[in-house]
Amino acid sequence: MALVGDSHAAALLAVLEPQLNALNWRLTAFTGQTCGWLPPALSRSCPGLTVIRRDLLHGHYAIVIATEIRVYTSSIADHLEAMEPVAATGARIVVVEDTPSVSAASTACVDRITYSPTGACGTPEGVAYRDPDRLAQAADRIPGAVVIHTRRYFCRGGFCPATIGNVIVYRDTAAHITASYARTLSPYLVEAIERALRR
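Below the sequence we write its predicted structure tokens.
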């Protein structure tokens, strides 16, 4: 399998790695800062996309897992242009819905001396999901592709707390999850991926 995307995709490595041996999965990571899954000509900030595209098309991957930060302004059509040729190779595309966005107030709250893991630090769900996940929307248009919806792992009752189960969820205002929370998510998110692949 391949993992494709930007630094949010790289954060998934800590989710996937603990399960690889048990599931007999072999993973190749194609991740880099600002390297969303787009046609190379549309992402000049990620020169490696040309090589990534070639490898995805000829590397005989059974599964391609992808995610990227939701605040990108790339269009659904741009993502489809990158994804459809890979899907045509027979690879199963799995898009993990991006983490919710994080307000600066939420991050500042965690930094306070009065911070408590059971306190009110967090981001309203309406703010966290204001930006659509266009990569996931593109995957919904590709036959056989699946989207793993992740909102239940981050939000409840219209609120996305900064701490879940005594684990700090985010390491910055760019909504990168901490390695500790990624490991917490690992069995649940990997199970969701397995279940989706059986459909």
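The beta strands are 2-5, 28-31, 63-67, 92-96, 122-124, 146-148, 159-161, 163-164, 167-168.
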